[in-house]
Amino acid sequence: MKWRKLIQVALKSIARNKMRTLLTMLGIIIGVGSVITMVALGEGSSRDIEGQVASLGTNLLMIRSGSAHVGGARGGAGTLESLSMTDVAQLRDASTLLQGVSPEVRVSSQVIAGGNNWNTSITGVSPEYFMIRNYQVETGDSFGEREIRTRAKVALLGKTVAKELFPGVDPIGAAIRIRNVPFKVIGVLVSKGPSAFGTDQDDLILAPSTTVLYRLSDGKTVRSIVASAVSPESMESAKKEIGAILRDAHRISADEIDDFHINDQTEINQMATRVTGTLTLLLSAIAAVSLLVGGIGIMNIMLVSVTERTREIGIRLAIGARPLDILAQFLVEAAILSLLGGVIGIVGGLGTAWGLGALIGISIVVNPTVIIVAVLFTGAVGIFFGFYPARKAANLNPIDALRYE
Amino acid sequence: MSAATLVVRDVTKVFDLGAVQVHALRGVTLQITQGEFVAIMGTSGSGKSTLMNILGCLDLPSDGDYLLEGVAVAELGRNALASIRNEKIGFVFQGFNLLARTTALENVELPMLYDRRHRILDPAAAAEAALVRVGLGDRLDHVPNQLSGGQQQRVAIARALVTQPAIILADEPTGNLDSHTTLEVLSVFQQLNREGMTIVIVTHESEVARYCSRIIELRDGRVQRDAVVPSPRLATADLAAIQQEAVL
After folding, report:
1. Residue at which a domain ends, from A210, A241, A264
2. Containing domain of residue A341, as a range?
């Protein structure tokens, strides 16, 4: 029996009981639909998280001063003011696994621009900082080595600061005062939005490190240094390298405690991976259960169909159908039933994901692999659960089947 | 060539119902030649249905030989039996057994769906030709419940003959029909028989058997009588007579 004919016969029989077909497919529709919805939303949100992690910086390594310990009492992180501009220079010269090093000299201060003022943090950084922490200049210009050397009084504003100090006005070229030092605004940064932890990443001013250190700060305290490893894979070894360089610079022997800490994003990444892993496991469980239930629904209705059509099977057998023909006919019907449910589920799931994503502000990701797998899987479910009823039909005795009332 | 289309030799059939064994056939021997129109008669329990199933390759004999066009059927497997049914036998049933909600044309095309050797190149054309032969050329697209009982049975006959079988086996083909449509169906059979088709009708009505050329009567699983009908009645003539009466 030709495939085209088989599919025709199956479609006809499916179309004959539209309501029943729909109810039968409902299990598969809901199962596939919910999986597709959650995969689309899950991948979308994990991409959002990845984006946020990436917005923190490229292969970011953060070096902070360690804790002071006087006698038995230990201070908190950063209580020891162990980092200096020398360390920055050391790291830049000696490291082989870093593609950029920048100090973060941070002061918090009231900033005045004409009639407006705003309290924000001013961070003194080197030109590499923009690359390390993924800051981009939206309008205006960044600064370079010359501004570092000359301790130029130039500043780049984050979106929030620009909005607060210069509402509705282009701030480029304008003057602002920080701790009574006049700065010229040379650029505005591209907005990064809130970080993964909810802090506003646009509420800041960036200025040359030397300017902030010597004109606004005490001229020596470098709270933290940020560096960018050459690749995600080299982060661990870059961390070790930084440790070695700084221990050498600070003359710390092997049995002494480091006077600095190095942090990276692996913990954040690990957390994200853990969340995604849990989500995937949950999804797989839902998918398995709902496809099982849907499959049983299909098996049930196929058994009903075989009983209802016993006479038809008898006729087909009498006029020369082989058992295999009957088996194929019912298998194709079950597979089509299941596939149809799968396709409706996919379309419905994507629609739901799109609607929900828009509602709660998560971007959705349509993964073609997931869709292909869903289609193949539902087809397989149909064949698996359709096999028993189909075999029952194929093994009918034609004489009994013909006499069946 | 002996021209024996169908040879049955010492066929027995025993149904094992656990506690009891039912001997449905106790040694049946008969031959049916190409072009015959045979009625197999008998009361219920005589074994005629069992014989019919064996002749139709729906069932196998417990013992004995059955040769259909020289092929020993008893030795065949399920798939080979299906092919034999498809190619050599045309079934007509008492309850018509057409597929519901399926047009006459599609019903007649059905056997060719299972024709693995693709002997018939254009199933649609063959099906149409078969329907024209039974006088339903204008009912091709009608579904069974739009057709009368006689018409439905004629669709079933068209389905039986479309594969050009060696024999048409009809199991109580007029059992569900009134006398008028019975004559209608019988006239179709007689027409086909005149064209050379071998036809075997299983019936318990002697009225019907009178239109056949030979009567085989079964009783208790044995052939009790096997006789040629000297002058079979002509269905068309009787049909015309009835119509005449109705007019008068």
Report:
1. A264
2. 3-52+270-403
How far apart (Å, rounded) are the C-alpha atoms in residues A381 and A377? 6
Give the C-alpha separation, B26 to B15, whole Å: 12
A102, A47: one domain: no
Residue of A nearest to B93 (CA): A402
Residues belonging to chain B with any Cβ–Cβ distance to chain A shorter than 8 Å: 53, 56, 58-59, 78-79, 82-83, 85-87, 91, 93, 97-99, 101, 110-111, 113-115, 159, 163
Please give the full DSSP string across B189-240, using - where no structure is assigned.
HHHHHHTT-EEEEEES-HHHHTTSSEEEEEETTEEEEEEE-SSPPPHHHHHH
Task: Please indicate, yes or no, whether residues A24 and A88 belong to a single structural domain of this protein.
Answer: no
pLDDT score of A53 more than 50:
yes
Stated pTM of the model:
0.73
Could you tell me the domains of chain B?
33-60+78-247 (3.40.50.300)
Predicted local confidence at residue A192, as pLDDT: 83
Number of domains into which chain A is organized: 2
ipTM comes to: 0.92
Residues B221-244 have pLDDT tens digits of 999 999 998 889 898 888 888 888
Q: How many CB pairs under 8 A join A and B?
A: 57
Mean pLDDT across A221-230: 87
Q: Are A210 and A81 in contact (CB under 8 A)?
A: no
CA distance A345 to A27: 9
